[in-house]
Amino acid sequence: MAQRIKVMTSDLETLGQLTRVYSEVAAKRMREVRAGVLESRDFLTGVREIFNEVNASYRREIFKIAKGRGPSASLRTGAEKLTFLSHNGKTAAVFLSANTGLYGDIIKRIFEAFVAEAKTANSEMTIIGRLGRSMYLSSAIDRPYTYFGLPDWQTTASDLRAIIDHLVQYEEIHLYHGRFDSIVRQTPNKYVIAAGSEVGEGETGVKYLFEPSLEEIMVVFEKQIFAAMLDQVVRESQLAKFASRMLSMDQAGERIKKRLAELEVEKQRAQRQQENRKQQEQVTGIFARRVAAAR
């Protein structure tokens, strides 16, 4: 009994040290990702501002280019949205998961939202992360999917390039990811990226020189905005995952402390029982010797 308690205590103390390390690393990475989210947000805002200026300044030329390109440039006259990229008219549902576990229940809750669309809509399925692929293959969903690997940490532009090239062809993209609400609250979120950008009204006095051409610059702008939006969602997802891991590890640490306290009580109880047995054995031995002497 005492040996079993000793082994369990040692194992729990080791596990407690691991949870503290994981929690500290998650907290450090969460702070760094949060800084990256703000930088990405500022960059996206800047690109959008210049893009809107170009749209407003060259509205007539942009419409002429769109009409001249035919099906390769789509103009939605009702909503006045314009896209210079070719799209396939389809919708993609994307599950931003992870490569490893220990992120609490946030990945599972995101997956449930992703699966709901897989069951009810005709979207083409895309999964990012080994853990997400494993969950999808273990589910009852029997639909083809496209898989991409992506690091859980320190994602670069080159890591996203293949994903961007795949998704940019879709008319609408539904990104299922974790959203950071607070340190103690992370929720599944569906972020929609639709093809096309709003065309500015009127014209401004701002003029630009374009090299090589206005048309090619608009294509670059649209791709850059799409890439920045996807990068922003990936960073938001990482922020939610590390916050969820930190919370999960802290909760696990509290449970370990509670169990260690219970084992300490069991240890003391076992020691008292052992002392009682020794006393009983001593009393029994003394009584037996006296009985033998009396005979």
Descriptive report:
The protein is α/β, with parallel strands linked by helices and 295 residues long. It has a single domain (16-200, 212-249), classed as ATP synthase, F1 complex, gamma subunit (Pyruvate Kinase, Chain: A, domain 1, 3-Layer(aba) Sandwich), CATH 3.40.1380. Helix content is 62%, strand content 15%. It contains six helices and eight strands; from the N terminus they run ααβββαβαβαβββα. The strands form two sheets. Strands 5-4-3-6-7 form a five-stranded mixed sheet, sandwiched between helices. Strands 1-2-8 form a three-stranded antiparallel sheet, with helices on one face. Helix 1 packs antiparallel against helix 6 (214-294). It is elongated, with a radius of gyration of 31 Å.
Short description:
By secondary structure, the chain is of the alpha/beta class.
Net shape:
elongated
Mean pLDDT: 83
Helix run count:
6
Q: Structural class, judged by helices and strands? A: alpha/beta
Percent of sequence in beta strands:
5-15%
CATH topology: Pyruvate Kinase, Chain: A, domain 1
Tell me what the CATH architecture is.
Answer: 3-Layer(aba) Sandwich
Say which CATH homologous superfamily is assigned: ATP synthase, F1 complex, gamma subunit
Q: Helicity, in percent? A: 55-70%
The CATH class, by name, is Alpha Beta
* Topology, number of strands: 8
Low-pLDDT residue spans: 75-79
Radius of gyration, in angstroms, nearest whole number: 31 Å
For the largest sheet, list the strands in their spatial order.
5-4-3-6-7
Number of domains: 1
How many strands, which pairing sense, and closed or not: the largest β-sheet?
Answer: 5 strands, mixed
For the termini, the CA-CA separation is 39 Å
Q: How would you spell out the order of helices and strands? A: HHEEEHEHEHEEEH
